[in-house]
Amino acid sequence: NRVVSNYVEKNGSWGIDASTESAYTRIAGNIVIDNGSGGIQTSYPTNEVVGNMCRSNANYGISLLATRSRAWSNVVEGRGRTWAGIYQSGTLTVVTNNTVRGCANEGIYVNANDARTVGNTVESNGAHGIHVYSGARNRVVSNRIDGKGKQGNGVYIEYAAGTVVTNNQMYRSTNYGVKVYGASGTTTNVVVNNRI
Q1: CA distance 70 to 18
Q2: pLDDT for res 20
Q3: CA distances from 127 to 40, 44, 161 (A)
Q4: Mind giving me the DSSP string for the chain?
Q5: Do residues 163 and 179 lie in contact, with contact meaning Cβ atoms separated by under 8 Å?
Q6: Closest CA to 195 of 174, 169, 156, 173
Q7: Burial of 46 (0-12, 13-18, 19+ CB in 10 A)
Q8: Among 36, 146, 157, 168, which one is least packed by beta carbons within 10 Å?
Q9: How far is it, in rounded angstroms, from Cα 54 to Cα 32?
Q10: Cβ atoms of residues 40 and 59 within 8 Å
């Protein structure tokens, strides 16, 4: 399946939703603006979200709910309306080379296992640049996170285990560059070789 080069605006639910029986769908080059439930959602495995512009959508700009879904080279502009720019919930999801800015709460929200969040530019979001909540064995690598004096934490690891945060650049957060919360000494989160 291909959903390519559409202009999608002001729908009551999702702008684009690839769900039941939609494996191997590629959603590419769309402009998705001001939709009521969110911009683009995929809830079936192996789908790809590539090179889209998502602006001022409610809830999430892009939502990856299924195993092995990927999002890369997208631009998400929350403009204070979008709660989180990109939501990673599926196991083994990959989010790379996206630009996410101006979301009300999170730039990228990871609530998954074995997810990869790599090489993204995340700017000026309301609470956290990248928030890893729960889950295990997630990787946050080589992202550029600039709070620009608006964003509370660069990377926030909350109740998660086995998270690795490495080779990221984090600037100008109002609270912490990296914050780890609710993780005991046995959860083995690792924060190494970052510029904070």
Answers
A1: 13
A2: 77
A3: 22, 29, 21
A4: -EEES-EEE--SSEEEEE-TT-TT-EEES-EEES-SSEEEEE-STT-EEES-EEES-SSEEEEE-STT-EEES-EEE-TTT-SEEEEE-STT-EEES-EEE--SSEEEEE-SSS-EEES-EEES-SSEEEEEES-BS-EEES-EEE-TTT-SEEEEEES-BS-EEES-EEE--SSEEEEEES--TTS--EEES-B-
A5: no
A6: 169
A7: middle
A8: 36
A9: 5
A10: no
Q: Please list the rounded mean pLDDT of every run of 10 residues in the chain (196 residues).
A: 97 94 92 98 95 98 96 97 96 98 97 98 96 96 93 94 96 94 79 96
Dig out the tokens for 8 from the structure.
Answer: 């999608």
Identify the pLDDT of residue 186. Answer: 60
Question: Which two tokens mark 130?
Answer: 């990248």
CA dist 99 → 54, 158, 164 (Å)? 10, 23, 21
Q: What's the chain's Rg over C-alpha atoms?
A: 15
